[in-house]
């Protein structure tokens, strides 16, 4: 029998930080467990990235991203050296397959590899392949449902290089949309009846992309990405006021823009965002058997733009709220609550990655 040294020393879950690398910046979250499924937010921090360092989820400049990770690590004050990283959904191929039950781990691995080669458009030696047994297959109790996830090795290696360049060690690699769902499942569980049977829409509005997920009882019913994000508003500010991009981004966040900004730039952007959400919902209805959504969650850096959630609720006629992934968590003494309230929706993925410590 193998003895887990960590358990012996009382270190069941060594500190693991969630690190979300997106187009606009790097976000870090560290959680600790204070009871069964009860968490405390120990620290959170973010650091912007130079434009072009990460494009469409691809790391274009490892050094710049590594520097930002080193800065965010230092800024947060964490001592944890192990990290959980996310892969953008667009760079991961996932497929649910059915296999006979009762196989050993080794037999499963062989079977998964031979199945995977049918679905993956690259040579198997170019990909990192992982699988997860979900449980018994629905219509055949002797079979099992297995989720395969595959991504090109170079994409994984880039993220590993970023972490190692910053002096930290990657232990877990998750898919960003799975991490977001894990964090959201915690919030849904706090709803009346734990949100059972309800269809929830999650819109993560980032800098360049909006990731749309429709969820019910812990299952993803539908997912898509739309090219829309907060960068459009920043670009409008750059054009209208002749500012540099970085200055426009800072003043947008601080709300320090010339008079007329709201009427001329912000309101049209909000209208556009609400239109994107409405369009995505129509796509969902026309391409699936579903005809209703019970609640709509907004997340991502754009979710906190004043007036957005109200505009979306009004246009879609669906109850909507901005998601705070830390709702119901204890907060460590060093956590600045005011800053947390303003920024929490942008930390959904980082929070889900940090929760991997307790799996």
Automatic annotation (TrEMBL):
Pfam families in alphabetical order = PilM_2 (PF11104)
Phylogenetic classification of the source organism: Bacteria, Pseudomonadati, Pseudomonadota, Betaproteobacteria, Burkholderiales
Q: Which domain of life is it from?
A: Bacteria
The source organism is Noviherbaspirillum autotrophicum
Domain SHS2, by residue range, is 16-184
Instruction: Name the chain's protein.
Output: Pilus assembly protein PilM
Q: Name one GO biological process term.
A: cell division
User: What SUPFAM superfamilies is this protein classified in?
Assistant: Actin-like ATPase domain
List, alphabetically, the NCBIfam families matched: pilM
């Amino acid at each position: 029998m193998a003895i887990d040294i960590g358990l012996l020393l009382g270190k069941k879950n060594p500190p693991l930080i969630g690190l979300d690398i997106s187009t606009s910046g790097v976000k870090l979250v560290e959680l600790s467990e204070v009871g069964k499924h009860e968490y405390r937010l120990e620290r959170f921090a973010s650091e912007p990235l130079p434009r072009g360092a990460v494009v469409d989820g691809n790391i274009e400049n490892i050094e710049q991203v590594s520097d930002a990770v080193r800065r965010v690590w230092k800024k947060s004050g964490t001592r944890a050296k192990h990290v959980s990283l996310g892969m953008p959904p667009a760079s991961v191929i996932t497929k649910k397959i059915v296999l006979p039950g009762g196989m050993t781990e080794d037999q499963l691995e062989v079977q998964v590899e031979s199945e995977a080669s049918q679905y993956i458009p690259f040579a198997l030696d170019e990909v990192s392949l992982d699988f997860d047994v979900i449980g018994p297959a629905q219509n055949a109790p002797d079979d099992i449902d297995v989720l395969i996830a595959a991504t090109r090795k170079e994409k994984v290696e880039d993220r590993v290089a970023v972490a190692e360049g910053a002096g930290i060690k990657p232990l877990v690699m998750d898919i960003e949309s799975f991490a977001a769902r894990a964090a959201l499942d915690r919030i849904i569980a706090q709803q009346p009846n734990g949100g059972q049977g309800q269809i929830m829409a999650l819109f993560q509005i980032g800098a360049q992309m909006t990731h749309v997920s429709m969820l019910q009882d812990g299952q993803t019913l539908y997912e898509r990405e739309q090219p829309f994000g907060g960068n459009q508003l920043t670009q409008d500010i750059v054009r209208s006021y002749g500012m540099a991009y970085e200055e426009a981004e800072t003043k947008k966040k601080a709300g320090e823009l010339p008079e007329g900004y709201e009427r001329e730039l912000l309101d049209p952007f909000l209208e556009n965002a609400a239109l994107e959400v409405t369009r995505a919902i129509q796509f969902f209805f026309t391409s699936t058997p579903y005809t209703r959504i019970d609640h709509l969650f907004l997340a991502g850096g754009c979710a906190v733009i004043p007036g957005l959630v109200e505009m979306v609720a009004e246009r879609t006629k669906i109850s909507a709220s901005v998601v705070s992934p830390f709702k119901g968590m204890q907060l460590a003494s060093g956590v600045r609550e005011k800053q947390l309230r303003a920024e929490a929706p942008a930390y959904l993925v980082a929070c889900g990655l940090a929760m991997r410590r307790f799996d």
